[in-house]
Amino acid sequence: MKTIQPQTISDLEFDRVLDQLAQRALTQGGKTRCRAIMPMIDAAAIERALKEVEEYKASIGSDQSFPGHHFDALTEVLHQLSIENSVLELNGFKKIKHVCLTTEAIKRFLKKFDQFYIVLNQYAVHIPYEDQPVILIDSVLDRFGQVKDDASQELLHLRKSILKVKSSINKSFSQALSRYAQADFLDEIRESVVDNKRVLAVKAMHRKKVKGVVMGQSKTGSIVYIEPQQTLEFAQELSSLLYQEMEEVKRLLKWLTNALRPFITELTQYEEFLIQVDVWHAKAHYAYAMNGVRPVITKERTLQLIKAYHPLLFLDHQKQKKKTYPQSITLDQNSRIIVISGPNAGGKSITLKTVGLLQLMTQSGLLIPVDPSSELCLFKRILTDIGDHQSIENHLSTYSYRLKQMNYFLKKCQKDSLFLIDEFGTGSDPELGGALAETFLEEFYAREAFGIITTHYTNLKLLANELPYATNANMLFDAQSLEPMYQLFVGEAGSSYTFEVAQKNGIPYGLINRAKKKIAGGKVRFDKTIANLQKERSGLRHLSKSLKEQEQSAKVQAEELAQTQQKVQEKLERYQEVFDANQRLLILGRKVDQLAVRYFNKWTKKGLLDALFKLVMQENSKRTPKTKLQALGDDPKNGALQKASSADAKRTEKQGKDQSKPNSANKKQAYDQELKQEVAQLRASKRAKKQKEAEQKPEEEVVFTLGDRVRMIDGVAVGTIDKIEKNKVIVNYGTFTTTVKKDYIEKL
Description:
This protein is α/β, with parallel strands linked by helices and about 750 residues long. It folds into 5 domains: about 5-150 and about 260-290, MutS, DNA mismatch repair protein, Chain A, domain 3 (Orthogonal Bundle), CATH 1.10.1420.10; about 150-250, MutS, DNA mismatch repair protein, Chain A, domain 3 (Orthogonal Bundle), CATH 1.10.1420; about 305-500, 3-Layer(aba) Sandwich (Rossmann fold), CATH 3.40.50; about 560-695, no CATH class; about 710-745. The protein is about 55% helix and about 15% strand. The protein has 23 helices and 19 strands. The protein has a 6-stranded mixed sheet with strand order 10-11-12-8-13-14, sandwiched between helices. Helix 3 (about 30-35) packs across helix 11 (about 265-290).
């Protein structure tokens, strides 16, 4: 960003955001880097920064979470390493190794899951990793950070000798301890340690009988601590060996320091990389806490915030378990300036700060608490005038400060600027200050800058209504409960509810009436008119919401009713087919019963067989004009039962022929399937033919009357009409009645 005033940072409380961000960093370097974040204007850099945080945020709580990146700063270590002939301490080598291993682990992790962490892996690829420092350190130090015994042959020899001498010291001391204990020269504690040396606890009366060096005595003087003569020779040899060991360790550490000195550049890069990872970590966890997302960065001059929350307010309310109200606001070429009005404590200033703070955060690479479909363009300058900035030391009044800010705005405010002004025009005479504020607003409008202002001045509301690319807005207020609703409504100016708010705060009603009489009646009526319009708009908004809900409910009910009707129609068709089949079986059964009665009444067997054969032929004659299936398709009187009977006859004939064949069952199933397909095709062709004939012939309305004989289209069962209701009729089939549409039946 070209420039950003410290006052803008303070006005929008961006410094508080950076403090909260720094608290989530794990390293001191990360905390410092977080507090130094500043907004950018390069669109590519902003997009990359936002994607980095978005990818890291996705890892929180997932199976591919980031490995730990905490490390101790290398600033002092690298400074000491840069000094010629310097020697690092053991702790310095441990820090270097830890930074190297942590860097390697993160680079390996990002490479393994590069399909998830695309942008982060691209960043890590540009950090070359050299494993030589770790190899060098491991050649001298063990995993606990101490010099290894086999770091050199000389050190290995010295440490073996030290162990041997220590063993001799312990052995000689044990001999002296046993000897003087038997002689009863020692106290009950027998031995102690002085200056890291084992000594005998000799009774003071026997001190001259024990040979050795006196190392001290007890507080009472009853015990004298003596190092026995037998261990003195070995102790001197041990001191010499320890000195040689120390010199060898110094030599090895100096060699290791010199070997690591060429890798200062790489180690600096590793530390910078881990600090950057810590910044990602802080940004991601900050976004996770407030449900931050990456908005759409657009090249068009559009700022559209949907369901935007003020980050600081959201987090504070979250701790207090209070509700935070989101706001939606849009600035574009057709609405470059928004003038927000309404009562005090209604949320005007919070809305103003929300827009500015979210813009700063986005251009600083921070995710923001908005709807993901929100769009933001980039601004080169953000200018603010929020709050009271009186200064006794500088003899600066509120209005003087505002004039200085307006002068700065006039110098810097251009087409690529966003200006945010709270309580525009206040601090001076309302009429004079309002006129000057109106002039400033006209100037900012002419420069095509984007901006939001809050005001109570009527002339500014009227100006916003007159300018083509400016818009009025107001914070909604419940006039009945006298409580703010914390919702922004764009399109109309709002009333200040001056007297209503005063009444709510306990001002006597008589004083309020006296105040009303002191001002022009037209202004009171104007403010009251605005308030009434707001009430009506609120009622219309609730009515519109209710009507939309009812419309949605009606659509759902209509869909459910259509589905129910479809199911009923399908069931009716199935019942019709079953009824047709049963009717035919009843007729056939009666004929067979008559033949049985005649045979029972002494009819001859030959006569019975002839009659049965004749009956069968009569039934078959109904099935076999041309071909059986064609007859079914051409005869409109044949229903589902005739088709089923024809199929049964064919299956019976087929079964008789294939009784001796081993695969008769399979062939029967194949034949049944083929027959069903042909029947379905014939039904479809018949319906298409009837539909075509209906389209060709002029439509003649069929008039149904009570008692008419009718049947279902494609059915054979005949019923009579019992009742007619609009486009539906009730048909009586004898055993049951049903309600059907007129389009589904035909008159006989």
